[in-house]
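R.M. (postdoc): so does anyone remember the format we settled on? I'll just put the structure tokens first.
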């Protein structure tokens, strides 16, 4: 069974680039109304226009910073004021940072990773839950294969994604069956967040292929469009998990 999302309301955080941008296009192509959130106004405006062209009946642009609790409340309030309902919440906004732990000098700057990746999703979800209960809606959360792969130079990012994973595993128990939760744990996808950041000076992936998780040496790099399509399909079918590697299913 796959839900018909046409005319329903989907809120996507971090929609100005990467996976979030392509999730907007994917939902738009299926006729969903969209509330799109990010901090960069110019980029987000372009995505809003494209989503309308692709077929979304109505798109609301919300400039907001999910690391701030007051913005998360406003994001949900504006969506409800405008559309009067919420059917899917996609917690996608995230930032990364790459540094060996011992080389981190400004340690407090790393709080931003938790503030955005973890707390941003928690705050937004808390304000959205009453409305999602009313619509018997769905939550999609972008965790990562970083939840279980101890990739060097990404300790705090990995920790933020592992925290998200368990947070939403637990919420599944509390909120189900009214609200379905799909936890997405992608491997590396091509776009802004990953571009260049994981390559060494010779352009090779910087992970040590001898790490005990042998998947690391075989990480498939998927296109962002294929990733977005797979995520929307999983959400509409009410799947609990979508993951790669090595089981990422692109349909
Ligand atoms: P991008 O950097 O391309 O996009 C991140 C998005 O999040 C942007 O739209 C950015 O917009 C938004 N964002 C960042 N911080 C905030 C904030 N404080 N408030 C609101 N919006 C914010 O990243 P990806 O598309 O690569 O990643 C999307 C998600 O997928 C992330 O959660 C990431 O951790 C996860 N992921 C990515 C993988 C990959 O290979 N790329 C693999 C596994 C998981 P703006 O700057 O305009 O606010």
């Amino acid at each position: 069974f796959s839900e018909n999302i046409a005319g329903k309301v989907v809120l996507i955080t971090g929609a100005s680039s990467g996976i979030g941008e392509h999730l907007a296009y994917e939902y738009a192509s299926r006729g969903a109304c969209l509330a799109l959130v990010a901090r960069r106004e110019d980029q987000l405006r372009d995505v809003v226009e494209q989503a309308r062209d692709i077929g979304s009946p109505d798109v609301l642009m919300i400039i907001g910073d999910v690391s701030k609790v007051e913005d998360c409340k406003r994001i949900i309030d504006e969506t409800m004021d405008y559309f009067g309902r919420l059917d899917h919440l996609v917690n996608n906004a995230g930032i990364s940072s790459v540094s060996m732990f011992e080389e981190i000098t400004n340690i407090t700057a790393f709080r931003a990773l938790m503030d955005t990746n973890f707390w941003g999703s928690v705050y937004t979800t808390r304000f959205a839950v009453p409305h999602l209960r009313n619509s018997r809606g769905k939550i999609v959360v972008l965790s990562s294969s970083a939840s279980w792969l101890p990739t060097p130079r990404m300790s705090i990012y990995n920790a933020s994604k592992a925290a998200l994973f368990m947070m939403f595993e637990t919420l599944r128990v509390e909120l189900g069956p009214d609200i379905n939760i799909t936890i997405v744990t992608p491997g590396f996808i091509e776009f802004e967040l990953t571009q260049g950041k994981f390559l060494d000076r010779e352009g090779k992936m910087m992970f040590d292929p001898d790490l005990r998780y042998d998947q690391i040496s075989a990480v498939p790099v998927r296109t962002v469009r294929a990733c977005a399509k797979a995520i929307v399909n999983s959400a509409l079918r009410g799947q609990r998990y979508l993951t790669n590697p090595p089981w990422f299913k692109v349909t």
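R.M.: ...and that's the designed sequence above, right after the tokens. Also worth knowing: Residues 13-20, 37-40, 43, 65-67, 92-95, 116-117, 120, 142, 144, 186, 188-189, 191-194 surround NDP (CB under 6 Å). The chain has one domain: 9-243.
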